Amino acid sequence: MLSLPSLQKFNTFNTFDPNQPHLIPDHSTVNRRRLRVRSSAPRSNWTAECVLPGKLLPSPLRFRYGSAILPAMSSPAVVFPEDWVWGAATAAYQIEGAVREGGRGPSIWDTFSHSAGKIANADTGDVACDHFHRYPEDIALMRELGLGGYRLSIAWPRIFPTGVGRPNPDGLDFYRRLIDELHSAGITPYVTLYHWDLPQALQDRGGWADRDTAHWFGEYAHTVVAALGVGVQHWFTINEPWVAAFLGHWTGEHAPGERNFRLALLAAHNMLLAHGEAMTALRSEMSPDSQAGIVLNLAPCQPAGDTNADLEATDRIDGYLNRWFLDALYRGHYPEDMTRLYGDDVPEIAPGDMALISQPTDMLGINYYTRSVVAYDSAAQLLQARRVVPADAQVTATGWEVYPSGLYETLKRVHDDYGPGKLLVTENGAAYDDVVEDGQVEDPERESFLHEHLLQAYRAIEDGVPLSGYFVWSLLDNFEWAKGYRKRFGVIYVDYATQERIVKRSGRWYAGVTRDNSVRG
Q1: Could you tell me if residue 282 is left (phi over 0), alpha (psi between -120 and 50 degrees) or otherwise beta?
Q2: Fewest CB within 10 angstroms: 13, 252, 317, 329, which?
Q3: Taking the CB of residue 330, how many other CB atoms lie within 10 A of it?
């Protein structure tokens, strides 16, 4: 799960929040024209034409900032495909705890969270949700929610405490037991190999700035799939490499806390190489009917105004956040406009690098939370862009705009422009200020958020997008990176003092959705 950075000290984006999945515009001339706002009304009340890649909607969908005005459904409910996967997602450092048990070594997030001033309220992941000890209880709750899939991540330092060498049998055994328990509950595991917890020992050797880390990641992937592949048929290599690279190495918001743009670009390239190494390792061991891919944080972006400056700023943000990864993975090269912009900061591309990175995947996971509205800002270094939040926008507890149709726009655009054979919504959710009253947690805002986004997922299916599942973020309230425990995304409430779990109203609603395989229109 991603978090919000503050870049004001770097004078880079001012109010632009780069840790939002953003922007996948169509870069053809005709569609740039269609992106222009077509109203002279005040900016707080703009109405614009919704753009699809390569074409306009037959009857243009119009939106008002803060609440999409959607066409009425012709039936009282929409029914998802029979093989649709209803799931929930978590990440190891955010829920497991037990950071010094079972032979686990320290990760960069252990080091970072214990560094003064890095995390809200000085929170750490030392205990988190204590999932390491309570996973049978949590799996029972998954079953209560009717989940068909559970997306988890494996902690690299549980398997290789120093990043390399002999694997830790206790770490492998923990995940083996977890996977067996999932199968006993009728829940399919979807395993992510890297959700940001690099072993600290590898960081001490250069971390993601060292090409050798990509090699060691391949060795780690090979070890895990060889040990656990009998019980796992769905693998993701890396979660949100943009976040790990740029928030970890440029803005300093995430571990390891570096603040160097050239280093961030190098880390991003080496993470993509690591993805390629892991894909090769997975292919060598996983069964023929297994699938592997990567997870990216993506979303649409619209320009804040109808000037060429805003349109061009939007293109730059798109290249930074989305095309840098999508083009590398699915077109075998980095976007030319961004390599020109970055100049000498672009890392050396060795022969064979792009072939390794762009080898075919079986699926792409998309994490979506909000759109980005981009304005030109000459004072913002490098990208000369900043993000603006419309004055009348509905926002979550993190200040992110609620924009459901952005999920459809993202899915449709990725399908049309990049053509992955299979898509999954691997994260989608919202933080709200949940409270317990009389033993219950009423969160109608989250229920509404999920409802509207699921309708947009169905809309994508109807338009031919090969979408096969949806994983809500998150199963549990958890350690939300730099925000610590202050922001709650779970459909299950966690009392961190007692480790009591309470299924929220949104969780009970989601259980009804999974039971009926449908959503009311």
Answers
A1: alpha
A2: 252
A3: 17
Q: Give the DSSP H/E element, type plus range, for residue 249.
A: helix 248-249
Catalytic residues, by residue number, are 240, 427
Using omega within 30 degrees of 0 as the cis cutoff, is the peptide bond preceding 167 cis? no
Helix (H) or strand (E) run with residue 184 in it = helix 169-184
Which residues, listed in sequence order, are joined to residue 191 by a DSSP beta bridge? 152, 235
Say yes or no to pLDDT of 420 above 70: yes
What are the contacts of 200-203 at 24+ separation with CB within 8 A?
A: 200/105, 200/106, 200/107, 200/108, 200/110, 200/111, 200/157, 201/105, 201/106, 201/161, 201/162, 201/163, 201/164, 202/162, 202/163, 202/164, 203/108, 203/111, 203/256
As a whole-number percent, the residues of the chain with pLDDT over 90 amount to 84
Backbone angles phi, psi at 468, to 5 degrees: -125, 0
Give the contacts of 495 (CB within 8 A, at least 6 positions apart).
436, 501, 502
C-alpha dist (Å) from residue 293 to 46, 179, 227, 419: 38, 19, 19, 13
In 230-322, which ranges are E strands? 234-239, 291-297, 301-303
Buried b (16+ CB within 10 A) or exposed e, 125-160: bebbbbbbebbeebbebbeebbbbbbbbbbbbbbbb
Residue 410, classed as helix, strand or coil, is helix
- In the DSSP assignment, the letter for residue 18 is T
Neighbours of 500 (CB within 10 A): 11
Nearest to 248, CA basis, from 191, 198, 214: 198
β-sheet bridge partners, residue 192: 153, 236
pLDDT, tens digit, 9 for 90 and up, residues 128-164: 999 999 999 999 999 999 999 999 999 999 999 999 9
Strand, coil or helix: 272: helix
Beta bridge partners of 51: 56
pTM higher than 0.90, yes or no? Answer: no
Give the model's confidence band at 1: pLDDT under 50 very low, under 70 low, under 90 confident, else very high. low
Give the number of other Cβ atoms within 10 Å of residue 195's Cβ: 26
Tokens found for residue 36: 């222009």
Instruction: Give the per-residue pLDDT at 17.
Output: 40
Partners of 295 in the β-ladder? 239, 365
DSSP 8-state assignment for residue 155 = -
- Candidates 339, 391, 355, 302; CA nearest to 61 is 302
Q: Are 257 and 200 in contact (CB under 8 A)?
A: no
As a whole number of angstroms, the distance between CA 253 and CA 258 comes to: 8
- Under a CB-based contact definition with an 8 Å cutoff, are residues 25 and 315 in contact? yes
Cα distance between residue 451 and residue 449, in whole Å: 6
